[in-house]
């Protein structure tokens, strides 16, 4: 049927777009639910059975009164709306998700209301509101068919045959069907235990009345549909034919303009709705108080956090409307962000395969009465937040960050709920207080009782008929209106608290947005550039906020928010962004601060205080206040409801055929389509207007009674965006790709959907690995000395790795046949382990797996380290600290990534194709060969950089280490008669002193994770005849990660040789595997500094390689000090070890040693080597002798104190029991002087000492006053930092 121009052109301005009736089609009779049959066909096909053998919905072992039968759209009006076509399949499925429900007169037949959402491919939504009730079946064929099905059920009550293999979807479906078949549209299925006898029983079937609207006016639509149902069941017919009311709500009721309220008329009572103004939070008509009452504050905040982090969210309840209330409630709290992924708050049982989607989603699943949660096996649970609404229980994913200031945030929300009589604990408890007035309002009204001004004001309002908040005490409102008003005010106050948190956390976000000069260039390079400076933003936040924010800024909703901000340069601001920016601008007027002065102190929402003061403001502003005065406060809703701005045209008689649609109690009549499919075409009372873009266009379909008020404001034409911008909005955000279609559910379409999931997973893997690689290489470039700044912090890196683990878990969960445990990846690994161990048992040795056996990390000193998937699994399984399968899977992934074996391990895991086919369905990602190869290649690219994601995360586990001491074998003294010992230190601690057995150069030891190894102390007790020991290096290997550290020495340990040291502190370097071992591991992070070797000492002393020039020495000192300064400018958790920067090969100690050796008269006198420490000792002896003679008393006091400090430090070092040698003593003096900021004060003393002239040439740097002053200035820059030394350096020295 054609539709008039008026009926289509103004559809965006109409209150409702469609009215539909869903129920039993008596012409076709009883039909099995085709979608349920399709689901069974798919399951049979995926299990490898013949699809034709699947049952077609016939299930004779179940009572026909509990079976699923097909519902149909019996009628809908109008036929179509041009810009919003009617989706018959989707509406039918969501009106009655479980199909038709039958019962008899012996069963309860309570009506029920629920709502739903249809998301179109462009991301726009339609809201459906459904009133379901039972209607008597009068069709003889239908009753006869039901009688026949009942006889067949009695004759074939044999139990169903069990299948040899059932998938996780099978078990999920069976668990949902426990306790009976489908209920219709939210109506509880009746017990129907007595069966059906057509001769004595009256048969009833569900019917649904549905209103489709563009805006979620849930309360208004619910009241309108309730009045329609009341008209059907009332003993007397309604005042007008039902067509009049349906026609009125479809064509003669417009959308209220923003900031205005509208009254239209139902069958018996008026219905009022209102829309927030442009500066208010967007419309959310689902009562938030109900959501908090159902779950409690704690559970809802956990659900809210999971929503912000875009996890998979599954709501579970018997009541469809509860699913919608929680889903819409939690998404309304996301302001200014929006959920960007799959959103199906009511998932029909026939669409359970949607739960297999390997993407973030928010879905709702109806439970059955008495269903056992333990039997509900979901396809994937590693990243799932499961919310059991009816039992007030929530199951959370592992290891996700909490909201900042959670305790204070929870308490503020609880205070708001208590004001409205709602218990913060949930479960439907009441607080016992007045639920209609907030506590502040009650106190104000109590104080004003008996006030003469208030009494005169009340008398004035009664004479004029004006209603003012708080003046008439609400006497003119019905209980339903009071409840509606209380729910609306509570929802606004709760949303204000949540909005206030984001306003505080992101008040400076604009400073970190990276804008583009023009739209086209930004769109063309969008995927390859950053549009938000994440590193700088995180560095500006308080440290307690970082765990949550670092995850949140990686979400799609945050990326879309930033995209909207950038595109606002070329088009009008998105509404949520406009409101949010306005709030930030207002906050800055009252709280001006520098971005660097952020505080983690919790600040309560100031708008709640403003709301509490509004009651007094109303009393003071009557007659003078404008509607805009309340635009940002919860009381704005009350003002709009108390004084309605506009009233729609009343329902009236239509030009209908007489005799059709006659009233019959209990039956919804067949409406006349002729009058409902087209709207009115002519009405002279419409105010003329041709303004384009108005939200409430005065046209032939919208009639206004202005109530002596001005017309609603017209919205100016929106600045049009370019076609490329609009295309980007749809493609980049991927709303159409993420939202499954409910209307077309053929096997071909479902297969195409799974292909899109596979493509999406591959694209996500490519983007994540590319981001990890680029960010890491950028940081390494900075560490190697290239310009710029590192764009990634350790926290961000850990967030990216956690995100990669989640992605891999989702990939392994896609298309899973049999769910075993919460982690699909770990389940696969366990199957692989079982298979390989069986082969190992059968063959008596490890199965041959060439690529999985690799040589040791180094060819010198250490035995081979076996490497395989099983070996790493056994390491993880031996860690008692990890309790769950999800934790084990993530630990295994981190370990494989750190060892640069992730791609190799997964390739080996997937090479067992028989196992993969057994575990996964045909459409699974892991069975798509081409995509799987690309996926492994993307993971292989991560081998180009070094990660310590296992070592730095699992800090408390016990790790086996292997240490090998390698002497210089070309000399005779390769062994010693003394008792050697070793102590290994890392960023997380040290192993303590461990004795090495005599004549043994290799040892293993277990120790709590030391982190990245930094230094090793090696020494002996000088016992025996061969006490001298010439050590080349010490090798230490982490037996789990395979990281091997080399600690060069190249010097003697023993009395009377070298500098006489019996122990040395060696600085380590991480070895790189040779290219012949793994060609994919050539690129790596910069090497750690190592301890000075004998070669470097020869260079300093003028032996091999020549001396450094004075310029080179000064440059070396500058680099060493700069490295220390850079160390302290990093976040505390990312600084690493300071010992390397002090004592390493290019550290401060070595640089100052070169400075002191320049021009040093170190020629051998009588075969004895002179060391720098000899000069220090002579200088100290001279100062002490001068002090005894009283010469130092004549010097200025600061200089005298400095002399005493140098003498005290040198004597303390000499008197220590440690035999660290002269070079070790000089190293210790420099470290202590740097720690206590004394080195720059000691240098002038040494320069002025007469000993200097005897032991240094005239050209020595130490005798050049200008150079010394420059060095003092450089060392003074270290005064700004608190230097902490490792215990291994200062052991035995108490200063």
Automatic annotation (TrEMBL):
Chain ranges of the RUN domain: 795-955, 1139-1288
Keyword flag Repeat: yes
GO cellular component: membrane
Keywords: Guanine-nucleotide releasing factor, Membrane, Repeat
Keyword Protein biosynthesis part of the UniProt annotation: no
Pfam families: dDENN, DENN, PLAT, RUN, uDENN
Stretches for region Disordered: 150-195, 840-859, 1075-1108
One of the record's GO molecular function terms: guanyl-nucleotide exchange factor activity
Biased composition (Low complexity): 161-175
Subcellular location: Membrane
Biased composition (Gly residues): 178-187
InterPro entries tied to this protein: cDENN_dom, dDENN_dom, DEN5A/B, DENN_C, PLAT/LH2_dom, PLAT/LH2_dom_sf, PLAT_RAB6IP1, Run_dom
UniProt domain UDENN: residue ranges: 53-572
PROSITE patterns linked: DENN, PLAT, RUN
Compositionally biased residues, Polar residues: 1086-1098
SUPFAM superfamilies reported in the protein's UniProt record: Lipase/lipooxygenase domain (PLAT/LH2 domain), RUN domain-like
Location (main, coarse): membrane
Domain of life: Eukaryota
Location of the PLAT domain: 959-1067
Family per record: Belongs to the RAB6IP1 family.
The protein, known as: DENN/MADD domain containing 5B
Originating species: Gadus morhua (Atlantic cod)
Gene: dennd5b
């Amino acid at each position: 049927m054609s539709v008039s121009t008026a009926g289509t052109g103004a559809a965006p301005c109409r209150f409702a777009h469609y009215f539909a009736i869903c129920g039993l089609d008596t012409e076709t009779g009883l039909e099995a639910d085709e979608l349920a049959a399709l689901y069974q066909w798919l399951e049979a096909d995926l299990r490898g059975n013949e699809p034709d053998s699947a049952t077609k919905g016939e299930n004779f072992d179940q009572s026909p009164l509990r079976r699923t039968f097909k519902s149909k759209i019996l009628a809908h009006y109008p036929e179509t709306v041009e810009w919003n076509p009617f989706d018959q399949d989707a509406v039918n499925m969501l009106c009655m998700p479980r199909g038709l429900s039958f019962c008899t007169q012996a069963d309860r037949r309570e009506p029920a209301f629920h709502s739903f959402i249809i998301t179109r491919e462009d991301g726009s939504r339609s809201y459906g509101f459904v009133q379901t009730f039972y209607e008597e079946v009068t069709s003889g064929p239908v009753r006869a068919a039901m009688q026949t099905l009942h006889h067949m059920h009695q004759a074939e009550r044999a139990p169903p045959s069990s299948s040899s293999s059932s998938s996780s979807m099978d078990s999920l479906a069976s668990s949902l069907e426990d306790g009976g078949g489908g209920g219709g549209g939210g109506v509880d299925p009746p017990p129907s235990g007595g069966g059906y006898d057509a001769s004595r029983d009256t048969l009833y079937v569900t019917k649904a009345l549905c209103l489709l609207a563009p805006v979620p006016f849930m309360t208004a639509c619910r009241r309108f549909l309730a009045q329609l149902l009341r008209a059907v069941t009332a003993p007397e017919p309604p005042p007008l034919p039902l067509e009049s009311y349906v026609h009125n709500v479809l064509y003669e009721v417009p959308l209220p303009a923003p900031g205005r309220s509208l009254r239209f008329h139902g069958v018996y009572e008026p219905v009022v709705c209102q829309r927030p103004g442009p500066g208010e939070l967007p419309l959310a008509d689902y009562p938030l108080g109900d959501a908090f009452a159902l779950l409690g504050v704690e559970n809802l905040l956990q659900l809210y956090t999971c929503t912000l982090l875009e996890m998979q969210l599954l709501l579970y309840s018997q009541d469809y409307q509860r699913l919608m209330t929680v889903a819409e409630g939690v998404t309304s709290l996301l302001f200014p962000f929006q959920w960007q992924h799959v959103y199906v708050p009511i998932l029909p049982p026939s669409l359970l395969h949607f739960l297999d989607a390997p993407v973030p989603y928010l879905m709702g699943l109806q439970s059955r009465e008495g269903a056992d949660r333990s039997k509900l096996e979901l396809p994937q649970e590693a990243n799932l937040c499961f919310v059991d609404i009816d039992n007030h229980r929530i199951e959370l994913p592992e290891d996700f960050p909490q909201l900042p200031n959670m305790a204070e945030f929870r308490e503020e929300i609880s205070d708001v709920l208590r004001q409205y009589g709602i218990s913060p604990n949930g479960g439907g408890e009441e607080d016992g207080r007045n639920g209609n007035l907030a506590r502040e309002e009650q106190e104000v009204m109590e104080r004003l009782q008996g006030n003469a001004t208030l009494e005169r004001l009340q008398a004035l309002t009664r004479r004029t008929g004006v209603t003012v908040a708080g003046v008439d005490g609400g006497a003119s409102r019905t209980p339903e209106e009071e409840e509606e008003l209380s729910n609306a005010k509570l929802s606004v106050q709760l949303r204000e608290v949540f909005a206030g948190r984001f306003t505080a956390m992101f008040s400076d976000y604009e400073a970190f947005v990276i804008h583009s000069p023009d739209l086209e260039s930004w769109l063309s390079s969008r995927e390859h550039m950053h549009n938000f400076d994440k590193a700088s933003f995180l560095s500006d936040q308080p440290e307690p906020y970082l765990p949550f924010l670092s995850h949140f800024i990686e979400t799609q909703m945050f990326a879309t928010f930033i995209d909207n901000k950038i595109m606002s340069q070329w088009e009008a601001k998105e509404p949520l962004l406009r409101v949010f920016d306005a709030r930030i601008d207002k906050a800055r007027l009252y709280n001006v601060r520098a971005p660097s002065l952020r505080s983690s102190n919790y600040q309560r929402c100031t708008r709640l205080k403003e709301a509490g003061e509004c009651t007094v403001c109303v009393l003071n502003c009557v007659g003078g206040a404008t509607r805009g005065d309340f635009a940002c406060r919860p009381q704005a809703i009350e003002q709009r409801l108390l004084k309605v701005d506009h009233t729609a045209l009343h329902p009236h008689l239509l030009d209908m055929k007489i005799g059709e649609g006659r009233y019959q109690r209990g039956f919804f009549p067949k409406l006349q389509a002729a009058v409902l499919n087209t709207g009115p075409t002519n009405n002279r009372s419409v105010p003329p207007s041709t303004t384009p873009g108005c939200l409430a266009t005065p046209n032939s379909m919208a009639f206004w009674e202005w109530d002596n008020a001005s017309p609603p404001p017209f919205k100016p034409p929106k600045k049009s965006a370019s076609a490329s911008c609009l295309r980007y909005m749809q493609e980049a955000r991927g709303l159409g790709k993420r939202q499954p279609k409910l209307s077309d559910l053929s096997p071909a379409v479902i297969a195409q959907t799974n292909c899109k999931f596979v493509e999406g997973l591959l694209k996500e893997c490519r983007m994540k690995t590319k981001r990890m690689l680029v960010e890491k290489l950028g940081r390494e470039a900075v560490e190697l000395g290239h310009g710029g700044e590192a764009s990634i912090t350790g926290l961000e890196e850990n967030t990216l790795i956690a995100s990669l683990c989640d992605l891999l878990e989702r990939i392994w969960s896609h298309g899973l046949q049999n769910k075993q445990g919460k982690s699909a990846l770990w389940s696969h690994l366990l199957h692989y382990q079982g298979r390989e161990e069986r082969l190992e048992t059968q063959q008596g040795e490890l199965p041959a797996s060439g690529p999985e056996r690799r040589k040791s990390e180094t060819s010198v000193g250490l035995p081979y380290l076996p490497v395989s998937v099983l070996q790493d699994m056994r390491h993880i399984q031996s860690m008692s600290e990890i309790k769950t399968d999800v934790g084990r899977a993530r630990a295994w992934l981190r370990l494989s990534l750190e060892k640069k074996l992730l791609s190799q391990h997964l390739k080996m895991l997937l090479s067992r194709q028989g196992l993969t086919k057994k575990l996964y369905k045909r459409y699974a990602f892991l069975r798509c060969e081409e995509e799987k190869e690309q996926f492994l290649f993307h993971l292989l690219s991560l081998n180009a950089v070094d990660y310590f994601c296992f070592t730095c995360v699992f800090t408390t586990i016990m790790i086996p280490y292997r240490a090998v001491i390698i002497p210089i074998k070309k000399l005779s003294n390769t062994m010693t008669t003394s008792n050697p010992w070793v102590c290994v230190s890392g960023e997380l601690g040290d192993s303590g002193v461990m004795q090495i057995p005599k004549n043994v150069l290799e040892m293993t030891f277990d120790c709590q994770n030391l982190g990245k190894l930094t230094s090793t102390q090696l020494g002996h007790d000088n016992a025996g005849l061969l006490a001298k020991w010439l050590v080349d290096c010490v090798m230490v290997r982490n037996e789990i990660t395979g990281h091997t550290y080399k600690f060069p020495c190249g010097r003697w340990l023993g009395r009377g040789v070298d500098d006489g040291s019996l122990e040395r502190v060696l600085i380590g370097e991480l070895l790189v595997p040779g290219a012949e071992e793994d060609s994919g591991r050539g690129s790596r992070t910069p090497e750690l500094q190592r301890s000075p070797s004998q070669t470097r000492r020869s260079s300093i002393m003028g032996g091999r390689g020549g001396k450094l020039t004075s310029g080179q020495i000064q440059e070396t000192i500058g680099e060493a000090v700069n490295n220390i300064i850079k160390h302290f400018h990093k976040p505390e958790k990312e600084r690493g070890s300071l010992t390397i920067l002090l004592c390493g090969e290019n550290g401060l100690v070595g640089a100052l040693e070169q400075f002191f050796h320049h021009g040093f008269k170190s020629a051998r006198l009588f075969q004895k080597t002179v060391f720098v420490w000899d000069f220090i000792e002579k200088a100290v002896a001279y100062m002490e002798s001068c002090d005894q003679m009283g010469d130092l008393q004549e010097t200025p006091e600061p200089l005298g104190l400095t002399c005493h400090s140098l003498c005290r430090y040198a004597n303390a070092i000499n008197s220590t029991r440690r035999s660290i040698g002269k070079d070790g003593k000089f190293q210790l003096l420099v470290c202590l002087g740097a720690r206590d900021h004394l080195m720059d004060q000691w240098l002038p003393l040494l320069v002025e000492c007469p000993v200097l002239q005897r032991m240094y040439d005239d050209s020595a740097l130490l005798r050049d006053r200008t150079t010394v002053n420059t060095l003092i200035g450089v060392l003074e820059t270290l005064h700004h930092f608190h230097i902490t030394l490792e215990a291994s350096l200062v052991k035995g020295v108490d200063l």
